């Protein structure tokens, strides 16, 4: 297809002539069948909802087809409207547009749905089993048409993938405002999500899926590398021995980063995965070195790799429970362990129980969801038992923010200690929170819209130069973080991290992000970089996400179940210059468990972009630092005071620290008086 044909297809939106039906393409990874949750009357409503995108003369042919999709897959995806052009991030110059910012957003959307990037591309799901860009292909077609025709004085409004329309605004306003899954709080159960999604009225956008900011597993590999590296450092500090073996599960969208991160950290890793297509994808991309489906051979290979001090990543094609139990029986010296299956979505493809094949599980979760739930619960109990056995031998196990501890506790597994808390920490509590988030370090990312690898290489060099300058003047509290990230960016090219768009990720604080972004903008202005650069970040950050079992799990003042920070983040980003903003119910730990706020920003080399960089990025980070400081997190209090010293206009409310001995004494005295009164 030529560029002109591609542009005309986008401008056409929903076609005037009904496309021919398509056959189900078995060459790509598809979403599992969702359970049949709607009543007959609700199915009729779902049909009416789907047909409203199309002229009435299409309805006679589409209605039975959409009902068949709903009954077969549990959703109406509108497969026949999937575009015929290759889905990938093209050069920004190839997208039809009246607004360069809108063209950048179209690029990001098509990257999210690239089959080499997306987990279930034909169901418009980018990662996590249910992280959707849109609910159906009609929404995609209409949104792309709106973006291609909008001006710099219009804003596109998206309600859970549905393009509500173009509304007059101003050049300073965001070009797109996205909300996903914003249901009334009392309607956030897993069945609520299934019902609303099947009706076509709400979707689970995760964060970077529904925010169009996903950049493949690279987007998580850096954070995973930092986590694994510091877990090994922590193990060495406690035991004096250098750990070599990391065991985990999951090779999907986000979890697929684990073997690559383990390689960068220099250890042996074994990652279990039941989906053969996911393993094939990661192996073909070079993100995993070896594949084994034989536990006998795997045990022998792991012992050999550890003894020889190899750096190697091995994918185990099989169930993680079988892996954990065998390693526990064999007393394999696992040093660090975790899990990154999609347990935020345990009943619909996020976790596959032991004793069933991948195909059997997919059938059972739709045909007998209650039996499937029981199988999952029993599997989690077994998994925890094996993990406990290895932990007693010295393994450091941490929850990787996928709701493993939460769902295991709900299943009745032996996961709680005597105090009623989880036996194992969240990786945010032990590692990412105190080392990174509290100091403002998080997953700053960028995409070169030219599509040229040469431009990406130039951004790597620019970012490295800025980090070197920052390291020279850095206080000791953050020198290690800057040093680790400087090493990361210098090695990025050699690690072959790019999947899909020419993108990069780097953990940086507010100062680092602003200085790197300004340097990029200047390079675009001078023609050193040939096209605009898109900035963004993950939800896995200091400021954008309120998630009591992950990003804000190291908030101990009682506010970790509040979501003011995420909402304030989006509002503040919107009027400080973000190109698009997004707010999501749901994320890596589940619908109803987290609120995510995100942004995208286009650097086009203009002075206007330069102003937006300084105002918006400063707020985007320091919003989270101020909240963490108020929670009395030591690193955040340091970061807040440092930020105020650099910006006279910033006044953060700093907490006064109570004397713990005084609190204990007052409490004891009050209790004594109460006992006397009772007597």
Automatic annotation (TrEMBL):
Any one GO MF annotation of this record: urocanate hydratase activity
Enzyme class: lyase
Cross-referenced InterPro entries: Urocanase, Urocanase-like, Urocanase_C, Urocanase_central_sf, Urocanase_CS, Urocanase_N, Urocanase_Rossmann-like, Urocanase_sf
Known cofactor(s): NAD(+)
Metabolic or biological pathway: Amino-acid degradation; L-histidine degradation into L-glutamate; N-formimidoyl-L-glutamate from L-histidine: step 2/3
Sequence ranges assigned to domain Urocanase C-terminal in this UniProt record: 437-641
GO cellular component terms listed in the entry, alphabetical order: cytoplasm
Urocanase Rossmann-like domain location: 216-431
Reactions that this protein is recorded to catalyse: 4-imidazolone-5-propanoate = trans-urocanate + H2O
Record key words, sorted: Cytoplasm, Histidine metabolism, Lyase, NAD
Keyword Cytoplasm: yes
Biological processes per GO annotation: L-histidine catabolic process to glutamate and formamide; L-histidine catabolic process to glutamate and formate
Enzyme Commission identifier(s): 4.2.1.49
Subcellular location per the Swiss-Prot or TrEMBL entry: Cytoplasm
PROSITE patterns reported in the protein's UniProt record: UROCANASE
Span of domain Urocanase N-terminal: 87-213
Binding locations of NAD(+): 128-129, 206, 273, 400, 588
NCBIfam families in the record: hutU, PRK05414.1
Function: Catalyzes the conversion of urocanate to 4-imidazolone-5-propionate.
Family listed: Belongs to the urocanase family.
Identification of the protein by name: Urocanate hydratase
Organism: Marinilabilia rubra
């Amino acid at each position: 297809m030529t560029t002109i044909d591609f542009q005309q297809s986008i401008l056409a939106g929903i076609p005037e002539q009904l496309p021919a039906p398509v056959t189900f393409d078995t060459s790509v990874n598809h979403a599992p069948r969702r359970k049949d949750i709607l009543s007959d009357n609700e199915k009729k409503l779902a049909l009416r909802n789907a047909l409203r995108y199309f002229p009435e003369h299409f309805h006679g042919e589409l209605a039975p087809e959409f009902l068949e999709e709903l009954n077969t897959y549990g959703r109406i995806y509108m497969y026949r409207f999937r575009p015929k052009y290759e889905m990938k991030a093209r050069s920004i110059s190839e997208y039809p547009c009246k607004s360069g910012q809108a063209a950048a957003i179209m690029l990001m959307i098509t990257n999210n749905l690239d089959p080499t990037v997306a987990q279930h591309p034909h169901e418009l799901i980018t990662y996590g089993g249910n992280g959707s860009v849109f609910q159906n292909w009609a929404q995609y077609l209409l949104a792309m048409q709106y973006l291609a025709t909008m001006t710099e004085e219009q804003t596109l409004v998206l309600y859970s993938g549905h393009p509500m329309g173009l509304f007059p605004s101003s050049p300073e306003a965001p070009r797109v405002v996205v909300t996903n899954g914003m249901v009334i709080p009392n309607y956030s159960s897993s069945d609520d999500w299934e019902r609303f999604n099947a009706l076509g009225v709400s979707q689970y956008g995760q964060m970077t899926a529904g925010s169009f900011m996903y950049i493949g597993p690279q987007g998580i590999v850096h954070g995973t590398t930092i986590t694994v590296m510091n877990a090994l450092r922590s193990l060495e500090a406690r035991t004096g021995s250098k750990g070599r073996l990391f065991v985990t599960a999951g090779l999907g969208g986000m979890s697929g980063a684990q073997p690559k991160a383990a390689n960068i950290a220099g250890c042996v890793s074994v990652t279990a995965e039941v989906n053969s297509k996911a393993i094939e994808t990661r192996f073909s991309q070079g993100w995993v070195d070896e594949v084994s489906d034989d536990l006998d051979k795997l045990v022998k290979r792991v012992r050999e790799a550890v003894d020889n001090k190899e750096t190697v990543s091995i994918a185990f094609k099989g169930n993680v429970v079988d892996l954990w139990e065998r390693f526990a029986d064999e007393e394999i010296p696992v040093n660090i362990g975790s899990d990154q299956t999609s347990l935020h979505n345990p009943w619909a493809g996020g976790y596959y129980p032991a004793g069933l094949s991948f195909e059997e599980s997919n059938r059972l979760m739709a045909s007998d969801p209650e039996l499937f739930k029981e199988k999952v619960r029993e599997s989690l109990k077994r998994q925890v038992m094996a993990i406990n056995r290895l932990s007693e031998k010295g393994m450091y196990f941490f929850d990787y923010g996928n709701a493993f501890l939460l769902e295991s506790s709900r299943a009745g597994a032996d996961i709680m200690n005597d105090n009623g808390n989880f036996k194992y920490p969240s990786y945010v509590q032990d590692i990412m929170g105190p080392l990174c988030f509290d100091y403002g370090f998080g997953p700053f990312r960028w995409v070169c819209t030219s599509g040229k690898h040469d431009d990406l290489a130039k951004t790597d060099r620019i970012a490295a130069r800025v980090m070197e300058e920052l390291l020279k003047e850095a206080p000791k509290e953050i020198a290690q973080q800057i040093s680790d990230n400087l090493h990361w960016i210098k090695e990025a090219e050699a690690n072959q991290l790019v999947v899909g768009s020419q993108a990069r990720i780097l953990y940086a604080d507010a100062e680092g992000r602003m200085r790197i972004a300004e340097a990029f903008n200047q390079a675009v202005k001078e023609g050193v970089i040939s096209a605009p650069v898109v900035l963004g970040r993950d939800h896995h950050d200091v400021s954008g996400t309120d998630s009591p079992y992950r990003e804000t799990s190291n908030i101990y003042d009682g506010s970790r179940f509040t979501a003011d920070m995420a909402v304030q983040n989006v509002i503040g980003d919107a009027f400080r210059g973000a190109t698009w903003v997004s707010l999501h119910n749901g994320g890596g730990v589940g619908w109803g468990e987290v609120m995510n706020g995100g942004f995208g920003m286009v650097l086009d080399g203009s002075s206007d972009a330069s102003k937006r960089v300084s105002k918006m990025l400063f707020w985007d980070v320091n919003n989270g630092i101020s909240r963490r400081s108020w929670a009395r997190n030591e690193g955040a209090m340091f970061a807040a005071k440092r930020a105020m010293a650099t910006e006279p206009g910033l006044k953060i409310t700093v907490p006064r620290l109570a004397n713990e001995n005084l609190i204990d004494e007052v409490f004891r005295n009050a209790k004594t008086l109460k006992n006397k009164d009772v007597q």
